[in-house]
Amino acid sequence: MGTLPEEGRARIRASAMWLIAAVVAVGFGVAAYAAFLGFPVSTQTTVTAAAVINDGHGLLVRYQVGSSSCQVPGEVTVTETEDTVTLVGSAVDPTGTRVVNKGCTDDLYSVVGTVWLEEPLADRTVRDADGTEIELTDPAEVLG
């Protein structure tokens, strides 16, 4: 095999330059989207109350979501072991990566949701993400 003629090498260089230009353009577009519109960012929230429902097969959970102008409720994740049930709330900021014209209030609001357990609660302890025990209450208090 011989070497490529100059015309072939010029085409390969031109193709490589167009590929690099396309990658840079896409990268710039993604960065601009993140800065001006924003990608969603999910954060952990505090579970403030829980109540047993449906004969121990479920929990009614109240958790905090920050800044009603910037966050929407996420979900409550449940991790079950033989001794504990761990509840982790979440909030989603739909424009979390936005840096331009982002104004959020610093208020908190509570959200109530239901989680279902694989096994009835029985004698297990309910904990939050930090490992702090959540004292169970009645459903009216969780809703109130």
Describe the structure.
By secondary structure, this protein is α+β, with helices and mostly antiparallel strands. The chain folds into two domains: 1-36; 41-143, no CATH class. It is 25% helix and 35% strand. It has two helices and nine strands. Strands 1, 4, 5, 6 and 8 form a five-stranded mixed beta sheet that branches. Strand 5 (77-80) and strand 6 form a beta hairpin. The longest helix is centred in the N-terminal third of the chain and has 31 residues, at 6-36. It is elongated, with a radius of gyration of 25 Å. The model has no long low-confidence stretch (mean pLDDT 89).
Low-pLDDT windows of residues = none
Protein structure class: alpha+beta
The overall number of domains is 2
**What is the typical, i.e. mean, pLDDT?**
89
Work out the radius of gyration. Answer: 25 Å
Order of helices and strands: HEEEEEEEEEH
- How can the largest sheet be summarized? 5 strands, mixed
Number of helical elements: 2
What is the topological layout?
Layout: H1 6-36, E1 41-45, E2 47-53, E3 58-66, E4 72-73, E5 77-80, E6 84-93, E7 108-116, E8 125-127, E9 136-137, H2 139-143
Would you summarize the structure shown here?
The chain has 144 residues and is an alpha+beta fold. The chain has helices spanning 6-36, 139-143, and strands at residues 41-45, 47-53, 58-66, 72-73, 77-80, 84-93, 108-116, 125-127, 136-137.
